[in-house]
Design brief:
By secondary structure, the chain is mainly beta. It contains 5 helices and 22 strands. Strand 3 and strand 4 form a beta hairpin.
Length: 345
């Protein structure tokens, strides 16, 4: 099973460290509303229906089924070697690191016996992604200290998005292809390597997004850049991993966008860098879902869009071609879907 397919929230137990039961309860209920279901809390902290309690003791964690996870603190390479050399065939082990955490965790993961359940304790939300992703698969569970409801939001923002259902495309007939002069265009360089069939969903209207593909193919004069999507003009909407949209011109490094494959599969990818430069643009207009929609992209052979017959460079598109588009609710406020009447032209 891939790391992407393993739900991040299912592999996290939140340990509220606020001063009293009421404040701990506020952390629990906020985290529950955000999709977290496991909590390390004492009996006096009430849990919502559907949440799971983990009891914390000095030398072990005890789950609701009374199974136990041994707790150990590792502060040096010698202590780690002693831990790894000890006979251990199954059961569970929870490690709290003092000092370095990711490299020693990778060592444990590479040497743990088959069937050993591995937990890790984290003092800060920022530590969690590295612990979940060490050697790709990471720890089976991370127990993370959270002191406020806002800390839950910070944790959520640090996590990769949950797996999403496949995207369903429609075909829209290209009714107009015309030069649109010089304009700014936004290149999105991600921290992932994209397949030739993957790209970003972009468009002038949130109601109709076009699949602009990665530069994983290149051209006779340029090398492939599989981390890059030459996405389009800064006014364009782009689909984020959480289902919301943002304008290309507002994006920042570290944000997570939704990379979509021509097959409809999707995954979250992080922005590593953005490049905005003046380039000649081409305006593409299609008719779809009873309305006209446009996208403005750079006029270049390396900018490819998904069509009914595969990927084609924008320089080779002609009226009558069928482009693959994604339909979304058109009304948005700060990127989120709202219920209202809206017309975009």
């Amino acid at each position: 099973m891939s790391a992407v397919a393993r739900s991040s929230r299912a592999r996290i137990a939140i340990r509220p460290v606020a001063g009293d039961s009421e404040r701990r309860g506020a952390v629990v209920h906020h985290a529950f509303r955000r999709g977290f279901r496991q909590f390390v809390v004492p009996p006096e902290v009430a849990l919502p229906s559907g949440a799971s309690r983990i009891d914390e003791r000095h030398d072990q964690f005890v789950r609701s089924d009374q199974s136990t996870i041994e707790r150990r603190t590792i502060a040096s390479p010698d202590e780690l070697e002693l831990l790894l050399d000890a006979p251990r065939t199954a059961g569970g082990l929870a490690i709290r690191w003092e000092g370095e955490r990711v490299i020693p965790l990778e060592t444990v993961l590479s040497r743990r016996p088959k069937g050993l359940e591995l937990w890790v304790e984290a003092a800060h939300a920022s530590e969690v992604p590295g612990l979940l992703g060490a050697l790709e698969y990471g720890a089976d569970l991370v127990v993370v200290d959270i002191d406020t409801p806002e800390g839950v939001d910070l944790l959520e923002s640090a996590l990769d998005s949950e797996p999403r259902a496949a995207v369903t495309f429609a075909e829209a007939r290209l009714t107009s292809v015309r030069p649109s002069g010089l304009g700014d265009r936004v290149i999105v360089d991600t921290t992932s390597l994209l397949a030739p069939s993957e790209g970003l969903a972009v468009g002038s209207s949130a109601a109709t997004l076009f699949l602009v593909l990665s530069e994983a193919v290149g051209s006779r004069y340029t090398r492939p850049r599989p981390f890059r999507v030459n996405a389009g003009a800064p006014h364009s909407y782009v689909l984020r991993a959480d289902g919301s949209t943002r304008y290309l011109g507002e994006l920042e490094s570290g944000e997570e966008l939704l990379a979509v494959d021509e097959s409809g599969e999707s995954r979250g990818v992080r922005i590593g860098r953005l490049k905005i430069e003046r380039r000649p643009l081409t305006r593409l207009e299609v008719t779809a879902f009873g309305r006209s929609s446009t996208v403005f992209v750079q006029e270049a052979e390396t900018v490819r869009l998904s069509t009914s017959t595969g990927a084609h460079p924008v320089t080779g598109l002609v009226e009558g071609d069928l482009l693959r588009v994604l339909a979304l609710p058109p009304a948005r406020h700060l990127g989120r879907v709202v219920e209202e009447t809206v017309e975009e032209r």
